[in-house]
Amino acid sequence: MWKTMDREAFMDAEPFMDLYAESYNSSSSSISEEVRKQGPIGSVSAAFKCMTSDATKLCVHDALFKLKGTGDYDIGGTYADGDPEFWFFYTVSVCHGDNHLLNLFVCHRKTGTFSIEVANSSSLTQKVSPGDDVPYLLLPEDNMVKFNFKSTKPNLNYFIKTFCFKKLDRFNKASTLFIPIKITVNPKFELNNDIVKSIKLKHDLSGLLTKQETTDYILESASCKQFPTHKILLAAHSPVLMKMIKESDVASLVIDISDKDMELLLEFIYTGTIKNIMQEDCVKLLQIADRFQLTQLFTLTQHVIGDQINPNNAIEMAIVAKKFKLHDLLKRVFTYIAKNPKVLDSEGWKNLQDVELAKDLFQYSRNLVQSVIDKCRVCSSNLERN
């Protein structure tokens, strides 16, 4: 039914998926009403709806028939807050040596960052569900590989991974192939400590800053304090400073910035890090990174800024997260506010002028409550079935 369907054409047909699912499920009277509506929890298939957060496996039905030839097929999609979020599909082909290839793809219906974890091996394990005579095939669940993606506009397609099956003798006519999967939307930023250390070692010129040897340029703060520097380092690490230096006819530059912020700016330019970043005002660091286009400072700062949220600054954090498009931080702030009503008594909330941000906050809180209710219903249904 779904073979060779154009992604855009499928979007027009998607409202009819519920009808398809209904007709598909009506033949199985032994399945509970909740399962007929939502499908087996975690299964991504064209026959059922599956929440993105619940997805644990992709269902490739009639795998033997499809892997014998060539073509492209749809697997199914996932939803979030009632809206389509991801659609999975694949192509199959046969290459030299009787190798059968399955190329896995995903279409992201929205914008933003996400990660996909899938099996990292093509090894197959045959299993049989309780009460079912037909075995199914499963790719390894204990060896997953992670891929990160970023969508700047909706409905972008991404290649995920190719699986190679050398022989099809383990497949029978009715076999379903399950591909383990984990989807994370707006994944938290994780720093690789080894990479950070390497960057710091290669970038650390703190000796030049402290000794002030062979300096050839002066930066002057708003208080008129002078900071001897090296012009080549300023220009190399900040496009903004490079432009200002080029436009200046003298060997000095006055910047409307406090002494403290100037020290932080130069510390990062010369060392590639902020020594006591956990004790610093990370909002201020983000502002410095944005003003001087210091991409690495932006990256270094955002993984710790969430730890500074409190009732007095939560609204400011939300404003900053929205300004710098830090979606994961914004979600974290919204969750904090939903769990800490004291924020609504803060000066930040009383002085909030961003109506859209306030609407987004209340909508997120409403969705959060609804999500908890839905999970309780699913748990209750599972208990009834057991």
TrEMBL record:
Protein name, UniProt field: BTB domain-containing protein
Positions of the BTB domain: 215-274
InterPro entries, per database record: BTB/POZ_dom (IPR000210), SKP1/BTB/POZ_sf (IPR011333)
Cleaved signal peptide residues: none
Organism: Spodoptera exigua (Beet armyworm)
Pfam families assigned: BTB
CDD domains: BACK, BTB_POZ_ZBTB_KLHL-like
